[in-house]
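I am writing to request your help with a piece of structural work I have in hand. The matter concerns a single protein, recorded as an amino acid sequence and a row of backbone structure tokens. Could you please explain, in whatever detail you think fit, how the structure tokens follow from the sequence? Thank you for your consideration; the sequence and its tokens are set out here:
>
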Amino acid sequence: MIPFNVPPYCGREDDYVLQAIHSHKICGDGAFTKKCHGWLEEHTGAAKALLTASGTAALDMSALLCKLQPGDEVILPSYTFSSSANAFVLAGAVPVFIDVRPDTMNMDERLIEDAITDRTRAICVMHYGGVACEMDTIMSIARRHDLKVIEDAAQGVMASYKGRALGSIGDYGCYSFHESKNYSMGEGGALLLRQDDPRAEIIREKGTNRARFLRGQVDKYTWEDLGSSYLPSELNAAYLWGQLEMAETINAARRHCWDLYHEMLSPLAAQGRIEIQAVPDGCEHNGHLFYVKARDLAERTELIAYLKAHGVGAVFHYVPLHSANAGKRFGRFHGQDKYTTRESRRILRLPMYYGLKDSDVQRAAETVTAFYRR
């Protein structure tokens, strides 16, 4: 069986985790955390980067930094993971879902302005598959209406929009280092800040000024603000460092697999049998995923079963949030659901991970082709 995902592993992670153990500093913000912070700031241009316990935690922090109040509204796509909405619901805000573009499955920037009300405080974009949203338009709208922009760039490490790293364009950028992502610490994430904000460290440290205390800037640390325990273990950071120092190699390998899928499945797409992932001009993707779109839900179901029967793992996601029980309870959909539900029922992701062999990509693509040639 060709698995759908295998967590990345480069070979030095064991040594680094052992170094962290022997340093007797395993609770977070040790030497490996600082290395990861430095790498993120250097490679994204963010004013500040902070590792978090998850991509979800980074989103939660961004909601607190936006100072959302009960009844405030945040505009976001319905085609995303629950964390994108939960962060704002927990802050008391109302998620307002809008439709996606069928070419990228990102939020349709042309629909944002019509969804803005006097209660709108922020826009949360999600860069699906490491392919950027139309950020110039979105940032222009945000400036005109004095709105914060949060980038859910969970899938976007090493991807860019017009030369700018995803996660560094909006006010706050949120990365995930879950085992399903291009770079992993098991569970983990990072928050990027376009402008440094002292509140971010406080929120991350249970609402205390402990970070300033450890730097010798205050003689004791106290409770200063809202917050929670958003730090990851130093062991997780050490594991992540083993991959960040190999980031270019991992990115090149994933891009190679993506290109091979694209080459092999383009003939089927040209025949109109499937649609394959699109990458607009100005977007530099990171090979996070490769998807195809079947004709409809029934065909996708049949294709997944056929792939599984022939030893190829394939999955689908997401169930649109506005159709979920919690989405109906906590949020609302603005405008017409023209593409979100329809396209979500067609999409299918093929195996993609660091270490995936060319022969496995070829086998997966040939199996898809064989399904349509039956």
In short: The radius of gyration is 21 Å.
